[in-house]
Amino acid sequence: MKTVRLTMGQALLKFLDNQYIEFDGNENKFVNGVFAIFGHGCVVGFGQALEEHKGGITLYQGHNEQGMAHVAIAYAKQKNRREIIPCTSSIGPGALNMVTAAGTASVNRIPLLLLPGDTFACRQPDPVLQQIEHPLSYTVTANDAFKAVSRYWDRIERPEQLMTAALNAMRALTDPADTGAVTLCLPQDVQAEAYDYPVEFFEKRVHYIERTLPTSNAVRIAAELIRNKKKPLIISGGGAVYSEAADELKAFAEAFNIPFAETQAGKGILPWNHELNLGGIGVTGTGAANEIARDADMIIAVGTRLSDFTTSSKWAFKNPEAEFLAINVNKFDAAKMNAKFMIADAKEGLKALGKALKEIGYRSAYKDEIKISKDKWNKEVDRLYSVELENGLSQTRVLGELNRTLGDDAIIVGSSGSLPGDLQRLWRPVKPKTYHMEYGFSCMGYEVTGALGVKMAEPDKEVYAMVGDGSYVMLHSELLTSIQEGYKINILLFDNNGFQCINNLQRSQGIPAFGTEFRFRSKETGRLTGEYIPIDFAANARSYGAKGYTATTVEELREALEKAKKDTVSTLIDIKVLPGTMTDGYDSWWRVGVPEVAERKEVVEAHKRMEEEIQKARKF
Fold first, then answer.
1. Which three-class secondary structure string do you get for 489-551?
2. Cβ neighbours for 168, distance < 8 A, ≥ 6 positions apart
């Protein structure tokens, strides 16, 4: 057997550089770059390999470990999970900074390869700088924290272990049913140890992503389940997007006159104005989708895990005859809500089920209900887009202006706060892959970093991060990376003086505003009830080398947007919006743990209301 002597770090990089994906006959390179923040856990091992490497992998310098990993997640998501950017870090705090991103990737079923440095396998320098020592087991390091949020986890304690670890990593990363974060812990001494690796290990390896075909029995059962249903509703999720099933969804919905609603990950697969598109569903859904869902007797869940926001905490479906059918590649997700399921790729599942329904002559019994609900909702969106206030900008008015101004090809990115709710309800995407929302984890700080990842995936598109001031303050480090790498992103910062989404949640449950706004501490009350803290976010952006603008009126916003379109570097528009001017729920409910006992009667009353709504929700 022919071998080549390499360090483990060199071998890992050489292996990654030769991984390819084939999907529907199209082949592409799986790994084109690596994000790194070098520290003593990776700089002289894997870092040395990167410095000498002469292949097709580019080094990108991150500026926060969580941030760079979020960039990688957004990149993979925008690429429909067929390209990745691995991330490497030092040991201890550098590694732990990526745990949140690992959770974000796994919850959203997005491939993310993490290569955190680890403590010495030989244990001779123990305790090394930044090492966590566990008194009950010396085998435990900070990197064990990744186990709970990884789809595959391994620690490479001998250089030859790389081969099985790397192959298992690729298995998980390229499996549509089981993908998410993959963590390979790299002890810093083992990274530098050499081994005679088989040359075969480094040959070009193509990973075939096969479309899962439904069994004939599953199709038969699904068709029989739908046969006598009069008012079915499709819920289209991220799996339909990654499957590229837009044409099949459209054909299926139109053939049987079945309306469809969208999850956050599924939004935008078809234009907002398609006659059967009801928009977002659930807690942050549209009035149209939730109205149709209330009476639906059949829910066809395509590529969605039916989270509590999608189902309004299992409260949304009031028809006692309602049943669930899931089309999903992942049986764990398919079994949610006591659904019958068809384990299949979304595109193939819809095609097969559509053929079976045509054979039995099926068509829904909807008449004018869909159009009436949709027309009513469109008028509500138009109203919200036009809200004019004397003392400042409303958030919905700003979104209306942005939706009209940015252009159909522009990509918006969001994740947390009140914006995802407003966007799922109000945003009107026309083209696919222009609505990029991370709402599985709803991770604060994803927005700016995610915008960079999307821009790296689609450099010819204008990309806009929709971010609140609270989330921006938490994490915007990769704004610097965008400037460093020459990837222009646009940050639309909605400055409403704090965490107003959570402030609304507090007050809706009888709790007064407390610790959720950016205020000075009051000398009178001793609490954070003083004046709002004035923050010049535009100046902050300019300090990084970006362009910064401030908008307090629609006219100033329009002017800033026009300037931003002409700018060649990253931009930030600090949009001052009034607190409390976001949308509220439309025929939806979200279960939160309201205290049963409290001094304020408003809280106790809110608890009673919660108990009443719990009785209306499905139990499983």
1. CEEEEEECCECHHHHHHHHHCCCCCCCCECECCCCCCCCCCCCECCCCHHHHHHHHCCEEEEE
2. 152, 154
582 in the Ramachandran plot: left (φ > 0), alpha (ψ -120 to 50) or beta?
Answer: beta
pLDDT at position 620 is 86
Contacting residues for 596 by C-beta, under 8 A, at least 6 apart? 604, 607
Q: CA-to-CA distance for 117 and 38, rounded, in angstroms?
A: 10
Would you say 42 and 191 are in contact if contact means Cβ atoms under 8 Å apart? Answer: yes
Q: Give the model's confidence band at 520: pLDDT under 50 very low, under 70 low, under 90 confident, else very high.
A: very high
Is the model's pLDDT at 58 over the cut of 90?
Answer: yes
The answer to whether 462 and 490 are in contact (CB under 8 A) is yes
Contact, 292 vs 259, CB < 8 A?
Answer: yes
The residues that bridge with 342 in the sheet, in sequence order, are 327
- Phi then psi for residue 440, to 5 deg, are -70, -45
Q: 313, 326, 345, 35: which is closest to 175 by C-alpha?
A: 345
CA distance 410 to 428: 12
What is the tens place of the pLDDT at every residue in 461-482?
999 999 999 999 999 999 999 9
Alpha carbon separation from 315 to 296, 589, 618 (Å, rounded): 13, 7, 6
Stated as kind and residue range, the H or E segment containing 418 is none
The predicted-structure confidence for 412-429, as pLDDT tens digits, reads as follows 999 999 999 999 999 999
Give the model's pLDDT for residue 126: 87
- Residue located via tokens 């100046």: 539
Q: What is the DSSP letter of 317?
A: -
pLDDT at residue 231, as a whole number:
98
- Report d(CA 105, CA 181) in Å as an integer: 6
Measured distance CA(304)–CA(492) in Å, rounded: 29
Per-residue pLDDT tens for 438-450?
999 999 999 999 9
Whole-angstrom Cα distance, residue 587 to residue 452?
A: 35
Going along the chain from its start, the domains and CATH numbers come out as: 3-208 (3.40.50.970), 216-367 (3.40.50.1220), 386-497+533-576 (3.40.50.970)
